[in-house]
Amino acid sequence: MKKPHLIALAAGLLISGSAMAAAPCATEITGNDAMKFDKATMTVPASCKNFTVTLKHIGKMAKSVMGHDWVLSTAADEQSVVTESMGAGPSKDYLNPSNPKIIAHTKMIGGGESTSVTFPVSKLKAGEQYAYFCTFPGHAALMRGTLTLTK
Fold first, then answer.
1. Label partner for 137 (CA 20 to 30 A): which of 64, 72, 84, 149?
2. Is residue 40 part of a domain?
3. Is residue 130 part of a domain?
4. End-to-end CA distance of the chain
């Protein structure tokens, strides 16, 4: 005699086990009023079609004083993106989104706000070094990290 509840339980365990084995295609990062991200590294599984980064500003200061964004480029392009972004000025939230060196970016946010960006993993190449950073003036020196594409 089959026991339906045991079969359902076994099926549920198999499904949840395979879901747990699947690579996460999203991450969350926080920025604060002390100009710090809570993560110095991120990994993006190559098995993901798209990857989502959610930025939460856990500080209390306004965007005009302590704004944060999350911008991704190759490590080689980081400094030129930061320099160009400062020139964009506050009216453009210190970012030129049409810069081809920018792989992905969020909008600039202030304390208590959050924002997300989803980008195709196909924009990343195995073996390339990637950097993420905040483009608010002066923040990139402290608010930065590395992103790696993993197999």
1. 149
2. yes
3. yes
4. 44
Measured at the alpha carbon of residue 29, what is the angle toward residues 104 and 32, in degrees to the nearest 5?
A: 110
Number of domains in the chain: 1
Reported pTM: 0.85
Range of the domain at 81: 24-150
User: Could you tell me if residue 62 is inside a domain?
Assistant: yes
Tell me which H or E stretch contains 151.
Answer: none
Q: Are 62 and 112 in contact (CB under 8 A)?
A: no
Render pLDDT for 92-134 as a digit per residue (tens, 0 to 9): 999 999 999 999 999 999 999 999 999 999 999 999 999 999 9
> Domain of 89: which CATH number?
2.60.40.420
For residues 127 and 96, give the distance between their C-alpha atoms in angstroms, rounded to a whole number. Answer: 27
> What is the token pair recorded at 39?
């993560």
